[in-house]
Amino acid sequence: MSTLRPSSEIEAQLEAFLATLPAGVTAPPADDFAAGLQWSSWQNHRQELERELEAARLDELAEADLMFAFSGAPVFQHDIKAGFLGAFLSKTQSLINALAQAMEQKPTERGSIANSLVEDYRLLFAGTFPSSFGLRLRLHSSNELGRLHLSQTAAVLDQFCTLIDPDLGQAELVKAVASQRVKTHYYDLVEILSKEGAQMTVRTKARLKGFKINAQQARDRATWMDGLTESTAVLPLEGILTGGSIATNKFELEVDEEFYRGRISPEAKAQMKDLKLGERVTAEVIETTFFAEEAVVEGHATYFLKSIARVV
Fold this sequence. Notes:
Blueprint lengths: L6 H14 L12 H29 L4 E7 L2 E2 L2 E2 L1 H23 L10 H6 L3 E6 L3 E6 L3 H4 L7 H12 L5 H7 L3 H17 L1 E6 L7 E3 L1 H12 L1 E18 L4 E6 L2 E7 L1 H7 L7 E13 L2 E16 L2
Parallel strand pairs: 10-12
Antiparallel strand pairs: 1-5, 1-6, 2-3, 4-5, 6-7, 8-9, 8-11, 9-10, 11-12
Helix pairs in contact: 1-2, 3-6, 3-8, 8-9
């Protein structure tokens, strides 16, 4: 059994300590020796708590890949409403599958998800940890899958965490939900947090500090998405293939000193195998422009490469 204190306890202590420090002071007066000693003592204590907090969070994650901490209306002492938890986990799984499909561009039929993708991103219960209600989840290991784990799981989990950030900018949010499937399942997730009056923190090993969202912030996000609309146009382009990667399903095309960057279709992915960077190409690119409450989301449109060919 771990001898570390729960991260929630350490975090509360750190927040309480920081609240006692003089507001707006970033350094002690240069000519005040006593103040310098006091400042040094404060910084040492803060750093000790931060190190303890990081160690506790790592310990709580253990072998898990994803960690959730809940509080608010669905939580009673250290128990949680089963209906809420079941619905939340179902919507989380759907969103992660959607993010994985969008990122890996796996071709599917009739809205289905590729079997290998389902296996790679299947969430497994890995235990609880001390919190109002803390839950650990993990993905299958390569040994369990019986094959190498070649998917972009780290990037997908990072994108999931980013979506929970209530301070995520409008343009970045639009980019993250450009896929209709992602948009739908993300809306379902924030809607249940809003309706159930829940506060949630999500963490991964790469995002130890995590992101916290409360019911009001989730409600604001759902309201914003209610007003989000889009329009598409097909752009026939000719320019220079300046970047991209088949492995990450991305392209970069320069047309008259303007750059178009985005993801590629399965058809374009096959066509790019015969091309080299620097070649002149023709391309069919789908441009999607987003509108929030009838105003264009400033500085952002997404581009999707439908097809590409060398100029002969």
